[in-house]
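Try it yourself: sequence plus protoporphyrin IX containing FE, in.
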Amino acid sequence: MILQYLLYLDCKSWLVGIFLLLLLIDIFKNKCPPSFPPGPRPLPFLGNIFTGLDFKTIDKLAEEYGDVFSLRWGSERTVFISGYKMVKEALLTQLDSFADRPIVPLFHKIFKGLGVALSSGYLWKMQRKFANIHLRQFGEAKKKFEQSIQQENVFLREAFKEETGPFDPQFYLNNAVSNIISAVVFGRRFEYHNERFLTILHLDSEAILLAGSVRAQLYNAFPQLFDYLPGPHQKIFNNYGKIVEFIKDEIKKHIEDFDPSNPQDFIDAYLLEMEKKQSDPEAGFNIETLVVATLDMFEAGTETSATTIRWGLVFMMKYPEIQEKVQEEIDRVIGHSRQPSMADKPSMPYTEAVVHEIQRVGNAVPLGFPKKASKDTMLGGFFIPKGTTIITNLSSVLNDKNEWETPSTFNPGHFLDEQGQFRKRDAFLPFSAGKRVCLGEQLARMELFLFFTFLLQNFTFSPAPGEELSLEGQLGFTYAPIPYRMCVTPR
Ligand code: HEM
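Structure, out:
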């Protein structure tokens, strides 16, 4: 009887019926578990794909839905965690709850869940432990890093001096910062006019910027569909493809010259570890992971620090009185006859406070890297099931009204006590916290202090005539200053 009735239905009724059936399946499939964090109502099938995933939109939604809320993209739910109190609870108090990474299709295609930054479980533990040990070893308890930054400073000063008019410092800074991690990973630095390396740096910056675009993020919701469509995701894959080729060439040269009795850098040490770990394939020490691990260190160690230094120069140009105060401290403590060293830091509370404030306001990695609940977890009274993607809004911590006296003002006083001495602040979490805390934090802190202090020791920075510097940044995977041109006056 029902079959007979269905046979007599016209095409329109069939379509309506199929739509209603799919709608029911969608509602059933995407039903939230009890006590799941609230969020804006998702559209059928699509979810909240018209909601931007930039930190400013996330801040606004947190005001409306609270410090723990959720969004759905396609069928994928993500929980956003905001404010110092809740981020601390998620990353530090519940240390083991969010230690894994989710599969983010845009990045999975390149990083494949291997290496350090986007891997999980046992492989991540082993890769992170190895990277940690060797980062220290090749930095030889920090001394070698310090020397390598000081050496790079000299190259940077010469390059800046050669510029006769206004110029954009972006790729000098990217190259200089990248040379520090390149010395550890590849065993060498790259000249600022090395065309191939410059191309790699450009491709990398472009991919990082594009990764923040709404259209590239659409790929994460519907990867099978977008795989066949043009768009920024294709450019990102193409750029990373070329970066991978560059890294493979470097690894190939290392294999040809490999001397197991004398490992020179991270890649050599990794090749040695591959031999030692043959009986433990789960640890992932193989060429494929080496390519990704190298990409991790190179990627994570370049754009973040260089972007922060670029923000630093923007703030110094916007607030010349602060620039002057830093220079006054540099002149008093270091003078002009030698380079700044890490030993100077304790005697330079104002400069240290400025560097911290640059990181706080610059906000280079506003949403951190996504994580995944490794077990069923309660957070802020909400239930987060195992496997849910979570994003910690680090920007909301660095701007938390309950933690900072004047969150939206560039104010080095945030890091100074009444006697003018440097004071640490709990809500200073630009490197995140907990088990996945930035692996390069110590190196990055050294880079920021030594590069910044040296630059201000040697130059006074001012904007290019007629150019208005913006304090608004451009959002990609990182939050970076809008490209600018500046003038340098030697001191
Ligand atoms: C100012 C500079 C830097 C900032 C602001 C920064 C920030 C971050 C942040 C927010 C994360 C994500 C942590 C999380 O998931 O909770 C991260 C991860 C990471 N960073 Fe950095 N970073 C900087 C420099 C560096 C440098 C110089 C290196 C070089 C080795 C590096 C290597 C890494 C790695 C390998 C990870 C992944 C760690 C893991 O997943 O276990 N970073 N960083």
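One thing you can check immediately is this: The chain has a mean pLDDT of 93.
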